[in-house]
Design a protein that fits this description.
five-stranded antiparallel sheet, Rieske Iron-sulfur Protein, 29% helix, Naphthalene 1,2-dioxygenase Alpha Subunit, Chain A, domain 1, disordered N terminus, 2 domains, seven-stranded antiparallel sheet, globular, 367 residues, alpha+beta
Length: 367
């Protein structure tokens, strides 16, 4: 089931947070500095720029940066012109030159300024860029050693993006604290009572966990798929059974959380990368990337639509949970009280692991 008790990785429920930690602006600023800035810093996936000289602007950052593929690898590069600080490219494509539409300053694909009309000499103002680390195609710019952090993962091969293509990126706004999102994601106790669709697709009866300092992985089994819990999931059940010729997949789902904010998810013939961008104490942007085998993207739109509809049904249900939790905590805070309940093991072991991670990183600053 879980290796928490046997390895003594966690303490008692005292690891849960006081309610005010979800609404404190000073703590929020500390989190950005100590957890996010010092974390792995996910940027995007190599499949966003599959060919040399491909680029993609990061719409989740209002296109302020580019992911570019150069002959020696992938980089994050500024998409802000060095002349009058305008956004240059929006979207994706392939280009050996980047031209600012305002005054036609021109950069090569490596960010070097090669043209500045009507200047007697090249001002030599180049675009800032950084080479990215890669794990299974996921790209990172942060100070952490990603390969070391994710080493020893037993199911790493299940997150293999070989032969996959990016279908779409969904920007999903959540009206609650980022920590609340992670807590909901890392507990399976609510799956059966709150997710009729998901609860009819996966079974938590054979839930297993793997824990490391910077990540956790959940594995849940698949049901018989005979009784869909919602009309949306009925279409997803049919799509999966058709794809597997009536047989059941190996897993119902695998959910990797790489702290503090990166989730990689395996579903039958689907890989999803979900990244949280905290915007305020009660506002979180979830950037959701959907990947499928190339033949599915090219020829099986019905499969994709069924999967994404099921995924978003569950996401909206999770939003309701997150908002209810934050509302309840806020009510307690206004009353001058803080309450916590016990962890249910093994279904809430992941939540407790996250709490211990958070306290370990933030401990010296929360005294």
């Amino acid at each position: 089931m879980s290796d928490i008790a046997s390895k003594g990785l966690l303490t008692r429920p005292a690891s849960q947070f006081p309610v005010e930690w979800y609404f404190d602006e000073k703590i929020f600023e500390l989190e950005k500095k100590l957890i996010f800035d010092a974390g792995p810093g996910y940027v995007g996936h190599e499949l966003m720029v599959p060919n040399v000289h491909d680029y993609r602007s990061t719409e989740w950052k209002d296109h302020g940066n580019l992911i570019v593929r150069q002959p020696d690898g992938c980089y994050e590069m500024s998409n802000v012109c060095r002349h009058r600080q305008a956004i240059m490219l929006q979207g994706s494509g392939n280009a050996q030159h980047i031209v600012c539409p305002i005054h036609r300053w021109t950069y090569d694909n490596g960010g070097q300024l090669i043209g500045a009309p009507h200047f007697p000499a090249n001002p030599c103002l180049h675009l800032n860029k950084q080479k990215l680390q890669s794990w299974n195609g996921l790209l990172f710019k942060g100070p952490r050693d990603v390969l070391a952090d994710l080493g020893g993962m037993k199911v790493a091969d299940q997150f293999d993006f070989s032969g996959y293509k990016l279908d779409k990126v969904e920007l999903h706004e959540c009206n609650y604290n980022w920590k609340t999102f992670i807590e909901v994601y890392l507990e399976d106790y609510h799956v059966a009572p709150y997710h009729p669709g998901l609860g009819g697709f996966v079974t938590c009866d054979d839930l297993t966990w793997q824990f490391a300092d910077w990540y956790s992985v959940q594995r849940v089994g698949v049901t018989s798929l005979a009784k869909p819990g919602s009309k949306t999931y009925a279409q997803w059940h049919k799509a999966v059974l058709d794809r597997y010729n009536g047989k059941l997949p190996e897993h119902g789902a695998l959910w990797l959380t790489y702290y503090p904010n990166i989730m990689v998810e395996w579903y039958p013939h689907v890989l999803v990368v979900s990244t949280l961008i905290p915007q305020d104490v009660n506002k979180t942007l979830n950037v959701v990337e959907f990947y499928y085998p190339e033949e599915v993207v090219d020829f099986e739109r019905e499969f994709i639509e069924a999967e994404q509809a099921a995924y978003m049904e569950t996401a909206i249900e999770d939003d309701d949970i997150g908002e209810r939790m934050d509302r309840g905590r806020y009510a307690l805070m206004k009353q001058g009280r803080s309450e916590v309940g016990p962890y249910q093991s093994p279904m809430e072991d992941g939540m407790q692991h996250f709490h211990e991670f958070y306290r370990r990183v933030m401990a010296e600053h929360l005294k």
